[in-house]
Amino acid sequence: MATDAAKDGVRRSLVARLRDRTADPRPHFVVCGSDALVYTLADELATSGRIRLTVITPPDLRPVVPDLNGLRTRGVRVMTAARLDERTFSDAGLAGADALALVMPDDMANLHAALCARAVEGDLRLVIRMFTTGLASGVRRLFTDCAVLSDASMAAPAFVAAAIGEVAPTHFRYAARTLNVAKRADVPRDAALFTLATSDDGGRMTVLPAEPPPAGQKPTDLVLAEATGRPAAQAVTARRLARAGRRRRPWLSIGRALRIGLTRKLGIAVLVALALTAVSGALLTRFTGVTGFWKSIYITLLTMVGSSDVEPENTPAAQAAQLVLTVAGVALLPLITAAVVDGVVKTRLALDRGEVLKVHTGHIVLVGLGTVGTRVLRQLVDLGLDVVAIDRNPAARGVKVAASLGVPVIEGDASQEETLRAASIDHCQALVVVSTDDAVNLQAALHARAAREDIRVVLRLFDDDFAQRVEAVFNINISRSVSRLCAPAFAAAMIEREMLATIPVERHALLVAAVRVRPGSLLDGAPLSSADRVESTRVIGMTAAGSEWVDRQPDPRRVLAAGDEIVVVARRAGLRVLREQATEPLEPGLHDAGQ
After folding, report:
1. What secondary structure does DSSP assign to 382-438, as a single string?
2. Contact 393, 174 (CB under 8 A)
3. Which residues pair with 181 in a beta bridge?
């Protein structure tokens, strides 16, 4: 009975898929989400062309999500649904769809939606957003043809690298060697395969330029290189910064503790009493003819606490000094007692509020301990860097993680200058702001820049266009949109089945993919050089049809044949063109979805 039901389900799925393809041969993709990632992923897919795209969102979208009407004008179907269940997916035409992306900011909501989706369409590729690592591995085993991605884990390395001024770590394995992205100056000359990006004097970046680059090779050029076993530049930089950050200045911490523990009025009263005591003691020892430093201190302290005898034979000046000194001592003792009690109480309250009394130097100030902030925190600590964290939510995801790592956490609003001062913003190496509130992030960045012009500011903003404008206008070092950083990887997981890796280069995303030449295609019988185009695609290897051996440096004059597999690093548009050339033109309905 179960076998018959399964066969009926498969038959209905095939019929639905055939009916769907007969009506519209383009691949159909569905995206579900409620935050900025749903828009950026839909925008990324919409630029791919030759696909049908349906976007499902809840009625109450988050304020950071751009207007979805712009997607409708590009042929994207946008639906609103309170629940992601079988009925919603049926209405969206999920039966016969090629892939479904579930990018809700809730692991359980995504898992429930995945179960409902498989009930509607069993032959479906799933791309699921997950924050919990342990849950992600279980989901991969639960579903076939499923990719589980975490935008937090993908974005965190970029923020960490920006904080210490290095390239975001990107590694992937191909042809029995590990390839990574690095600055040209950080790798041996023979280890660099080709240039990924170069910048001119005006800051304009060129991706996948000609070799050698027109402006000449620079130490700061980004290259794709073979790992040689040397320590990565990021790790070396982190160790250097960690050593610099360990040079403490204890007097700064003492000064901060005194400022917190003493009120202004009480501090003035103590200082006045101490001044009177010092002046009166000096006059007394002078007019009484006492010589020697220790004897002067001895007489001054005993007189101050009222232990001196009446000296009628002293001169009037000496008697006046003795009298003033005794009265000042009577006033000073209770003032000191009050200052100690007040300081202990205020210090205890400051510690309960999460204020950090110790002044840190050469550290990283991290604002926001959500999903992205927690990942950034772990990586900074792993690199040996000193971190002070700020979050206004005591129950934030990363607060317990910070406590387990020994990282001090200040509970407060990072948009307030005093909160940043409590984190020793004047003495830090960088400020990394990754909270979920754009207004708070921007205010924190501006306060930090006002405190110190040379501070390195790494800023998270949800709107990528806004991030670019902020970086230019406010002279912020790095401003990034997490959704824009991660959208290419989610899109690639949906439509690029032969994807090997995604390489983030500033605001660009390069794709490492394998393309197979089909019989009768434009590449069948063409030289390999036709697959290698400046600022578009670069060939890093190929495998001949029927062979397992990988040619790491193929001759560009080699004639391609059906079944040959080319591995390239490409921009999305370049990869789309290459797939069109490698696909048989007589079957346009079977073109890859990335076209």
Report:
1. HTT--EEEEES-TT-TTHHHHHHHT--EEES-TTSHHHHHHTTGGG-SEEEE--S-H
2. no
3. 224
Return the structure tokens found at 456. Answer: 């390195």
Place of tokens 């330029």: 209
Task: Kindly give the confidence (pLDDT) of every residue in the chain, 595 residues in length, as a single tens digit, with 9 standing for 90 and above.
Answer: 444 444 444 444 444 454 444 467 788 999 999 988 999 999 988 887 678 999 999 998 877 788 888 888 889 999 999 999 999 999 999 998 999 999 998 999 999 999 999 999 988 899 999 988 778 778 888 888 888 888 888 888 888 888 887 777 777 778 778 888 888 888 888 888 889 998 877 667 889 998 877 777 888 888 998 877 665 666 666 666 666 655 555 544 445 445 555 566 666 766 776 777 677 667 666 666 666 665 666 566 556 655 555 555 556 666 566 666 666 666 666 766 666 666 656 555 555 554 554 566 788 999 999 988 998 998 888 878 889 999 999 889 899 999 999 898 988 899 888 888 888 888 888 899 998 888 888 889 888 888 888 888 888 887 767 777 777 777 676 777 888 888 888 888 887 656 777 888 876 778 888 899 999 899 999 999 999 999 999 999 999 998 888 998 899 999 999 999 999 999 888 888 898 889 866 444 444 443 3
**CA-based end-to-end distance of the chain:** 42
Q: How far is CA 89 from CA 54, 93, 299, in A?
A: 10, 6, 92
| Encoded tokens for 407 | 């990282």
Q: For residues 389 and 378, give the distance between their C-alpha atoms in angstroms, rounded to a whole number.
A: 12
Nearest to 196 by CA among 208, 183, 179, 212: 208
Helix (H, G, I), strand (E, B) or coil at 545: coil
All residues at 6 or more sequence positions from 216 whose CB lies less than 8 Å from its CB, including other chains: none
User: Any bridge partners for residue 391, and if so which?
Assistant: 411
Residue labelled with tokens 């029927």? 546
Q: How far apart are CA 484 and CA 41, in angstroms?
A: 8
Is the CB of residue 184 less than 8 Å from the CB of residue 223? yes
Please identify which residue in the block is written with the tokens 């001949």: 544
Burial class of 247 by CB neighbour count within 10 A (0 to 12, 13 to 18, 19+) = exposed
Nearest in space to 286 (alpha carbons), one of 312, 313, 322: 322
Whether omega before 212 lies within 30 degrees of 0, making that bond cis, reads yes
d(CA 98, CA 491): 13
Instruction: Map tokens 């503790």 to a residue.
Output: 257
Give DSSP secondary structure letters for 45-110.
HHTT-S-EEEEEE-SS--TTSPPTHHHHTTT-EEEE-S--SHHHHHHTT-TT-SEEEE--S-HHHH
Q: 75 is written with which tokens?
A: 């042929």
Cβ-Cβ contacts under 8 Å for 348 (sequence gap 6 or more): none
Strands 192-199 and 177-183: unpaired
> Residue 498: how many CA atoms within 13 Å on its side-chain side?
15
Q: Do residues 327 and 304 lie in contact, with contact meaning Cβ atoms separated by under 8 Å?
A: no
What interhelical angle do 293-304 and 264-287 show, nearest 10?
120
528: left (phi over 0), alpha (psi -120 to 50) or beta: alpha
